[in-house]
């Protein structure tokens, strides 16, 4: 394994061990775990924040790839049921991995990339929204998918405000599931 990959792997291990709280991890800890000198973090990544962004992106990429595999294994479900399933799985991941998810979403908002985690999630949801609403043109499907992803991100990032305004505790899985189902009906108009 090369130095860059060793640094990434060490940082990911520490992120997991610290329950996603990357601010508590030092460059010295990462380098000790990776068995490399301190200067290599700056050489390969520029700074700790960029390293953390790459690690979080890699961690989330694995989840997004699982989404695509799950879609293939839910053939017996209707398109709406698949969308519900995928949305609930997404929300569960966000709420169960709060620190990592927050970093991922905020990084995507701050430094959008063509293939960042938000865009990959959007692309995973897009065909399901299209299948739910075959009467819509491509532009309509894209708008509804964008609205759905945006609402899901906001219900996670602003859970306290959304829970208060909507009078539902979205930290509870069963409430989140019911609210997500209602949002799907509202956005898709089905």
Class per helix and strand makeup: mainly alpha
How much strand?
A: under 5%
Helix content: over 70%
How many DSSP helices? 10
Let me know the average pLDDT.
89
Shape: elongated
| Model regions low in confidence, pLDDT < 50 over at least 5 residues | none
**End-to-end distance, in Å?**
51 Å
CATH topology (level 3) name of the largest domain: Tetracycline Repressor, domain 2
Total discrete domains: 2
How does this model look, in words?
The protein is mainly α and 190 residues long. The chain has 2 domains: 1-46, Orthogonal Bundle (Arc Repressor Mutant, subunit A); 56-188, Tetracycline Repressor, domain 2 (Orthogonal Bundle). It is built from 10 helices and no strands. α5 (79-96) runs antiparallel to α7. It is elongated and about 55 Å long. The N and C termini lie far apart (51 Å). The model has no long low-confidence stretch (mean pLDDT 89). GO terms for molecular function: DNA binding. Residues 1-63 form the HTH tetR-type domain. Residues 26-45 bind DNA. Keywords: DNA-binding. It holds the Pfam family TetR_N.
Which structural traits does this protein have?
single chain; 190 residues; mainly alpha; Arc Repressor Mutant, subunit A; Tetracycline Repressor, domain 2
Task: Explain briefly what this protein structure is.
With 190 residues, this protein is mainly alpha-helical. 77% of the residues lie in helices and 0% in strands.
List the helices and strands and how they pair.
Layout: H1 3-17, H2 27-34, H3 39-45, H4 48-72, H5 79-96, H6 98-110, H7 117-132, H8 138-157, H9 159-166, H10 173-188
């Amino acid at each position: 394994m090369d130095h860059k990959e060793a640094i990434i792997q060490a940082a990911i291990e520490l992120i997991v061990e610290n329950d996603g709280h990357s601010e508590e991890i030092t460059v010295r800890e990462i380098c000790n775990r990776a068995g490399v000198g301190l200067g290599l973090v700056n050489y390969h990544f520029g700074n700790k924040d960029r390293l953390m962004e790459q690690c979080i992106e890699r961690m989330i990429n694995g989840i997004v790839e699982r989404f695509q595999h799950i879609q293939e294994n839910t053939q017996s479900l209707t398109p709406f049921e698949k969308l519900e399933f995928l949305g609930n799985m997404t929300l569960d991941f966000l709420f169960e991995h709060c620190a990592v998810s927050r970093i991922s979403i905020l990084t995507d908002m701050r430094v959008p990339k063509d293939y960042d985690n938000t865009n990959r999630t959007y692309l995973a949801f897009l065909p399901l929204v299209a299948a739910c609403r075959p009467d819509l043109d491509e532009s309509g499907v894209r708008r509804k998918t964008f609205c759905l992803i945006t609402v899901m991100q906001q219900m996670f990032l602003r859970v306290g405000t959304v829970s208060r305004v909507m009078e539902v505790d979205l930290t509870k899985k069963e409430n989140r599931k019911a609210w997500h189902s209602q949002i799907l009906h509202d956005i898709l108009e089905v």
